[in-house]
Amino acid sequence: MNVMSEPESVIKGNGDRRMGTSVHQILRTAYKMLHPGDFYEGLPRERGHTPPLVFLFICSILFTIPSSMFVLQKKIFFGLMFFLNAFSMPFITAFILYLVAMLLCKGLFTYNTLFGITAYASITLLISWIPGLAGPTEILRFCLIGLGMVKVGRISYLKAFFCLLCTAAAMIFLIQLFKPILGQ
Prior knowledge:
mainly alpha; 10 helices; about 0% strand
């Protein structure tokens, strides 16, 4: 069995949880994300949270460590905030995207499917800590999510773009809504 075919057994959910959560599996998944279209085509429509959750957790940690090095004071506090932001945003994005997809793509996506897509799109965290790359990597993340929706849900690029546009608008609206509460 060659290296390229091994991840598919775990990605397709053969029940081997030990292998699905190993560092080796994370590295193979990251390697497969060099060809995200092929990667997303291999994702099953229904799956558990464990492999994407572990992948997201590791990417969040690998983002937090270098990001907190740029903070001069309260490194632990900001490190915790960086981690919570990196780890929680795919959950929030998947939830809002699920609500939008229920309206625009009736019955094509479940929350688990969209969470898997958004969690694996968090591969961008590995380079987003570099100063000046946060904005472009967020755009790249949304592009990866759109590609995942096209490959997994078999929807058009235009419909995926519209779903992501509505999701981004809803997220911006929520940020603006909570600004007065957060005192900013």
